[in-house]
Amino acid sequence: SSAANAVLSVSLLSTVVAPGSLTVSSDPVSFGTQQVGASQGQSVDITNSGGSSVVVSQVTVSGAGFTMTPMSMPMTLAPSQSANLNITFAPQSSGTASGSLAIVSNASDSALSVPLSGTAVTPAGLALSPSSFSFGSVQTGSSQSLPATLTNPGSSSVTVSQATFTGAGYSLSGLSLPLTLQGGQTASFNLVFSPPSAAADN
């Protein structure tokens, strides 16, 4: 219009979207107890819970015993889209292990860190000391006893349910079965030889 008091009206439209944001399905990631020399895997999902796309530029794991299946980077996640990560805990020594999953992106939480944890135990086992016994000459009708020690060198428990011998005249003294030995625990007892006849036995 050419009128001097003309009013021009313009409509303005805009859409407000939430920035991209990453969430992790497990935080922290705990592997529980795992034997040394074995491995355990866990699957972890990272999800874009925001309203804008997120570009993930780097995903790494740190800490002794923790590894991750390699992924192609960079990776773009649209809103509500997820990506799966495979993390493995394979301890090489006993003890408590800790690490972290680090995710770098252009999301609102651009440097996301997730704790990793696990406990490594040495498999249970048995060690007998000494490893051999010599009773010498023992008269018929008498007996000879020798001290012995049974040790569990592992870090998990072991149960001894039965002890048997080859050869006649041998027995145990001071060892009540079944016996459970915790990691590092020892039990002392005696091996007894009572010859049933004059013949040598070993």
Describe the structure.
- The chain is mainly beta.
- The protein is 0% helix and 46% strand.
- The protein has no helices and 15 strands.
- The protein has a 5-stranded mixed β-sheet, with no helix packed on it. It has a 4-stranded antiparallel β-sheet with strand order 1-3-7-5, with no helix packed on it.
- The model has no long low-confidence stretch (mean pLDDT 89).
Q: Which tags fit this structure?
A:
4-stranded antiparallel sheet, 5-stranded mixed sheet, single chain, mainly beta, 46% strand, 202 residues
Could you outline the blueprint of secondary structure elements for this entry?
Blueprint: E1 22-24, E2 29-35, E3 40-48, E4 54-62, E5 66-68, E6 75-77, E7 82-89, E8 95-105, E9 111-121, E10 127-129, E11 144-151, E12 158-160, E13 170-173, E14 179-181, E15 186-193
Mean pLDDT, to the nearest integer, reads: 89
Write down the overall geometry.
rod-shaped
Percentage of β-strand residues: over 45%
SSE pattern: EEEEEEEEEEEEEEE
| Largest sheet, spatial ordering of strands | 2-9-8-4-6
Mind telling me the C-alpha Rg?
Answer: 34 Å
Task: Identify low-pLDDT runs.
Answer: none
Q: Count of helices?
A: 0
| Number of extended strands | 15
Structural class: mainly beta
Question: Which range best describes the helical content: under 10%, 10-25%, 25-40%, 40-55%, 55-70% or over 70%?
Answer: under 10%
- Rounded to the nearest angstrom, the distance between the terminal CA atoms is 123 Å
**Major sheet summary line:** 5 strands, mixed
